[in-house]
Specification:
By secondary structure, this protein is α+β, with helices and mostly antiparallel strands. The chain is built from six helices and 15 strands. It has a seven-stranded mixed sheet, covered by helices on one side. It has a three-stranded antiparallel sheet with strand order 12-6-14. The protein has a three-stranded antiparallel sheet with strand order 8-7-11.
């Protein structure tokens, strides 16, 4: 394929609510501005984009990610690629261990949207699969625009006034320098307006949200967990079964995602992650 040859990529919905397969785009080739604009519009509409059979060096991955915005620093520096520090290396074989010896597999703790502890959290997360286990290790994506639309008007009204206070996770190992650098809390609306199309979506990270502004921490966590249980329905979820060469782009402004830990970490699951700069949520 030649990514310079397609102005309007072919899109096939992955489910009735969430995601689209993109065909006719080779991310290892230069992308025309018209194609980049079409891909950004598709991301805002479908919240998840899937590109199959890609072959990307680290520098090409960063150039492909920049279609959606400038790559930004990820706050767990121990997972950054030394030569390309804006690429995170998600490797099950290199996972840090809990005291009981079990690996800490990033992204598996709960449904979440990335880096909400930043004042300008990322617009999108780009994941590139290099090797995958023989079974398990899927990633699921939930459409939070659709989740919001399904709420009662009374609940929409009550949630619209709430804001979350976000910090680094306490249960994920972080270097002292990272904790110091990202120590300042970030406050975001629980219902976020999409800057590209004006739609509203639920927006929160259950473990980075230390509390809801004005509520105690324990009450806040319980509230968010109950809300999460209420909104996650099969109809709004796309579960992605990884193949080597897959690139998945997730709109963090309108989706939650979760990696499934139902695989043998020793078998090896290796993804490269890039996050791109976003706006101040409103």
């Amino acid at each position: 394929m030649d990514g310079t040859s397609t102005a309007t990529p072919a899109l096939t919905p992955l489910t009735g609510t969430t995601g689209a397969l993109v065909e006719g785009v080779d991310l290892s080739s230069p992308i025309k501005p018209q194609t980049g604009q079409s891909l950004n519009e598709a991301l805002a509409t479908h919240v998840v984009l899937l590109f199959r059979n890609q072959a990307l060096t680290p520098d090409r991955l960063l150039k492909a990610a920049s279609i959606f915005g400038p790559p930004m620093e990820q706050h767990y520096s121990q997972y950054r690629m030394p030569e390309f520090p804006t690429i995170g290396v998600l490797s099950s074989r290199d996972a840090e261990l809990r005291p009981d010896g079990t690996p800490i597999l990033l992204g598996t703790e709960s449904w979440h949207t990335d880096h909400t502890n930043h004042a300008r959290p990322p617009k999108a997360t780009i994941l590139y699969a290099l090797s995958v286990p023989s079974r398990g290790g899927d990633t699921s994506f939930a459409n939070m625009r659709e989740a919001y639309a399904r709420l009662s008007n009374d609940l929409k009204s009550s949630l619209g006034y709430l804001r979350t206070v976000n910090t680094l996770d306490s249960h994920v190992p972080a270097r002292n320098a990272d904790r110091k650098k990202y120590a300042a809390p970030a406050i975001h609306p629980l219902v976020r307006t999409h800057p590209d199309n004006g739609t509203k979506a639920l927006y929160f990270h259950p473990t980075k949200a230390k509390r809801i502004d004005g509520l105690p921490t324990t009450d806040s966590r319980e509230f968010l967990e109950r809300l999460l249980d209420q909104i996650i329905e099969p109809e709004i979820v796309y579960r992605h079964h990884w193949q080597p060469g897959d690139v998945v782009v997730c709109d963090n402004r309108a989706a939650l995602h979760q990696a499934h830990a139902d695989y043998d970490p020793a078998e090896g699951r290796l993804l490269h992650r890039v996050i791109v700069e976003g706006d101040v949520p409103f």
